[in-house]
């Protein structure tokens, strides 16, 4: 591609200094733009540099201190500033042969295109011509101001508002086309459409006031022809007027007594109200403004049904335009406001329809009342937490970097609370975060039952869980533990995933998990955990084995039961030892008795004690196997140790 052609930047961040320097390095001289446009480029470049300096100063004043969050990406150098996308960029039509065309962002090319298209229209639209005519020109004119300035105002208004409409409407269509919406809030959209309707009412009232002066002038002109010596100068300001001024004014004035007579002189039609009210002669601007505004709003809303026109063609056309535009604007106002206001209740209506469908389905399937109540409670809790927004679908449709950052923000702290996962590097944590799915559980929901397959690990965000085990349903064994925000359950799945030789069958749950309150959590499925665990085995084995044993509920339960069994065995052995020591002491005492014959009572006592001791010893020997058999079932099966060793592939 020729270096002399227009440069284009797409999907790249460029600093303003770079763009300006590149503009100077590659001049625009490809036959489309002559070299005499270079001064314009230098002028635009100087304006751009000045604007950037002012913007930097304002930004530095607004943000004197900058805060950095943990986990933010490193910022680029201060010189590499991102440029805001210029809405004046355009695609050259000659380049739209293949693909999307060449995006032109050169200031000189944009300026030349703008000057040749919309520059004159924008100048006419922004000049304060009506304000200059009313506040500057008319007060300094002492002779022909009232009527001639009125005609000038018509030309000024047409030259001002027609260009504005020509520019506003395309910009409005462009904004709605590119962004899809004009306002973020539904109420803001409704107020915006209502404001447009009010503005149209003001414009109609202003034209009604201006045309009323036209009709009064027409009445004066008609009456002037009936009097000899009446001239056009009698309508102007100054001292050169004749004595017919009062006569002309009286002939076209309105009074309550001669209203019918005035209609025979001149029919003012729809302008009768403004002339009769005296608003035209009044110098009270708020009175003029609000009276004309109310008249325009009333007739636009009623579609001009109460307008009684004269036979004057211009007046009839004005009344027709009020009816037509009133119908169009009123329908647009009602339609747009209904659209915006319905958007606020759209989710509620969807929820109502879903509840109705669920009730019909439960009635059709004849579900019991307890199941129906649980379904209703879950739907209500899901609505309260999500407001009808499918969070998983919303995040899934985002680009990968946004999805990673969102999951990183929501789930990273939870994962780092798991001792097994805090040893991972950032890449593996990001992989885990990307695979976490949000789940909701209502109060008293049974999440997993003992002896059922475990298909996911749960990381609790909010709420409390109760876990309990009976060691496979054995009598006399019961263990319970409470989980809160930041805890996890389902570690059997982690052992299964870390074992490279594990089968495809999911592990069996050793505990029953029940929600004590409403619970928000993230779930990690078995397949996702298996994928991440294939890289997790490369870490240090001994440290992870100790961490897994220490924080696992399954290992904690087994260790507690093992300590209980060991203590009971130790206590039994200690009791047997004490009995043997007592028997030995008795035998030693009898052996050391003097040579004289023992008494009959001592002999009987010694024989009884010996028989009881021997009987207890025999019973203990016979009962020891049964005690061992009874204690062993109380000890749960030792959990399988995960394989953290490195694998040679």
UniProtKB/TrEMBL annotation:
List, alphabetically, the InterPro entries matched.
cNMP-bd_dom, cNMP-bd_dom_sf, Ion_trans_dom, RmlC-like_jellyroll
Where on the tree of life does the source sit, at the highest rank? Eukaryota
In residue numbers, the region (Disordered) covers 628-649
Q: Does the keyword Membrane apply?
A: yes
The way this protein sits in the membrane is described as: Multi-pass membrane protein
Q: What is its main location?
A: nucleus
Q: Where is the signal peptide?
A: none
Record has Chloroplast as a keyword: no
Q: Give the UniProt entry's GO cellular component terms.
A: nuclear membrane
Q: Which is one Pfam family of this protein?
A: Ion_trans
Keywords in alphabetical order: Ion channel, Ion transport, Ligand-gated ion channel, Membrane, Nucleus, Transmembrane, Transmembrane helix, Transport
Q: What sections of the protein cross the membrane?
A: 119-138, 194-213, 312-334
Q: Name one GO molecular function term.
A: transmembrane transporter binding
* Domain Cyclic nucleotide-binding intervals: 420-504
Q: Where in the cell is it found?
A: Nucleus membrane
Task performed by this protein: Cyclic nucleotide-gated channel involved in the establishment of both rhizobial and mycorrhizal associations. Required for full activation of nuclear-localized Ca(2+) oscillations by Nod and Myc factors. Simultaneous activation of the K(+)-permeable channel DMI1 and the Ca(2+) channel CNGC15 can give rise to sustained Ca(2+) oscillations. May function during fertilization in both female and male gametophytic Ca(2+) signaling.
Known partners and oligomeric status: Interacts (via N-terminus) with DMI1 (via c-terminus). The Nod factor has no effect on this interaction, implying that the complex is maintained after activation.
As for family, the record states: Belongs to the cyclic nucleotide-gated cation channel (TC 1.A.1.5) family.
> Which protein is depicted?
Cyclic nucleotide-binding domain-containing protein
Query: Species name for this entry?
Result: Quercus rubra
